Structure formats: structure tokens, C-alpha cells
Amino acid sequence: EVQVAESGGGSVQAGGSLKLSCTASGSRFATWEWGWYRQFQGNRCELVSIIGSDGVPEYGEAVRGRFTVSQDNDKKTVYLTMNNLQPEDTAVYYCATARWAGGLVVAGVCRREFGYWGQGAQVTVSS
């Protein structure tokens, strides 16, 4: 069984930064992909970033250039560093792992029946 937990959410003013952490238990950490997703008020789900076992990151268009994903295989931890946060970044941020992290959000819906998801971390950005 894989258990995933996020930490590091909070409230910042526009232009500020936050760093989210995602820790995992279980044996699949090194081989599965990891993704960060966010769910806005109204439930629309959006891919933020993916990082695979090869360490190559991908980013959603809305966050490219501002957010950075990284991983520490020894600590079984994935990080999301968010810079220049804006009010439109306000959402609940989720970390999840699956064989294919890109398939965990489809047509604006978080597909929590697939993969392993954390409980979510609220990020609030004020103007």
C-alpha cells in the first residue's frame, strides 16, 4: 500500500513564494511518475507538474516559468516550489503517484480512483 501526504500549504500575498512537500511510503516511489495537481473552487482540476523516474519535469502552461518540481529519491519526497504566486493560483494542491501521472486529470476532473493521492494542501494567494 502506498500512502501519500502533502505539507507546506498556506497563505501568501501576490508575488510571494511557497514550497510544498510530498512524502510517500511504499515501494513504488522510484519507478512511478509523480504529479502535482490543483483543484479550484468549483472543482475544476488542473495539472500543475509531473516528474518521472528519469527526473525530467513537465509543467502546465499556467505555471511554467514560475513553479519548479524536484524529487529526492532517498527521502521519497517530491517538492513543488512556487514563485511569483498570483491570486489565480489559489486552490487545493494535491500530490499523487501513478504509472502515468498525466492520466490522473481528464477534462478538468481529478481522477482520484486511479493512483495514490494525498489529502491536499490549501494555497491561498491574496492580492
What percent of the residues sit in helical stretches (DSSP H or I)? under 10%
Sheet with the most strands?
7 strands, mixed
Computed CA radius of gyration, to the nearest angstrom: 13 Å
**Counted beta strands:** 13
Shape: globular
What's the end-to-end separation, in Å?
Answer: 41 Å
Number of helical regions: 0
Report the average pLDDT across residues.
93
| Alpha-beta classification | mainly beta
The ordered string of helix (H) and strand (E) elements is EEEEEEEEEEEEE
Name the poorly predicted regions.
none
How large a portion of the residues is in β-strands, by DSSP E? over 45%
Task: Please describe what this structure looks like.
It is a single chain. This protein has strands spanning about 5, 10-15, 20-25, 35-40, 45-50, 55-60, 65-70, 75-80, 90-100, 105, 110, 115, 120-125. The protein has about 130 residues and is mainly β. The strands form 3 sheets. Strands 2, 4, 5, 6, 9, 12 and 13 form a 7-stranded mixed β-sheet that branches. Strand 5 and strand 6 (about 55-60) form a beta hairpin. The radius of gyration is 13 Å and the shape is globular. The N and C termini lie far apart (about 40 Å).
Properties at a glance:
127 residues; seven-stranded mixed sheet; four-stranded antiparallel sheet
Provide a quick synopsis of the model.
The protein has no helices and 13 strands. The protein is an all-beta fold and 127 residues long.
Describe the secondary structure blueprint for this structure.
Blueprint: E1 3-7, E2 10-13, E3 18-25, E4 33-39, E5 45-51, E6 57-59, E7 67-72, E8 77-82, E9 91-98, E10 105-106, E11 109-110, E12 116-117, E13 121-126
Parallel strand pairs: 2-13
Antiparallel strand pairs: 1-3, 3-8, 4-5, 4-9, 5-6, 7-8, 9-12, 9-13, 10-11
